[in-house]
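S.,

Sequence below, as promised.
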Amino acid sequence: MKDFDHLMSVWQEQPKRDQLSVDDVLKQVKKGISGMSSKLFWNITGMGACLVGLFAAMLFFVFTSWVTYVGLTIILITMLLYIMMMVRDYRIISKQDVTINPAEYLQSLKEYQKNRTEVYGWLYYLYVILMSTGLLLYFFEVLESSSAIFKIIAYSSYALFILFCSSYIRSHFVKTEQEKLNLMIDRLVRLQEQFD
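The prediction came back faster than expected:
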């Protein structure tokens, strides 16, 4: 019985979580979401400009091999699909105001986090495989007249770049974005618990 009383006294002496200011939490969440949606907007804009430029190159440059056109088509389709996914994510995080219904907004934020986790999972590697295949088919004609040494250097550099992006940059980007999302979700959950 002494152990139980001691355990109860220790448990009751635990410091209570600080009460969060509603205004501060909502401002912080709005600022975080605004930054993420702005970043997504500029990613969509940049990818769209690249898509238009690549389409124009495909229309106005004459390539001798059909393999080059297949490679460019694979790249265009992959970019278009990626833009559609970014637009969907942009709509999820910027479609509603956190101050109107925080519980509903929390749910949409969790949905966004789940979608982004899925994107950075197997879909990212599918994207890399499709883009690499398209670029390799494109390089087939572009590097056709190059020397063997230059081809080895070009393909090796490309492979190293893809490995670097797929390992270091991807993991760093995913980690920072997940930390930001977890912080916003945690704040909204704590705020919701205060009122429950």
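Helices lie at 2-12, 22-60, 66-94, 102-142, 148-195.

Coffee later?
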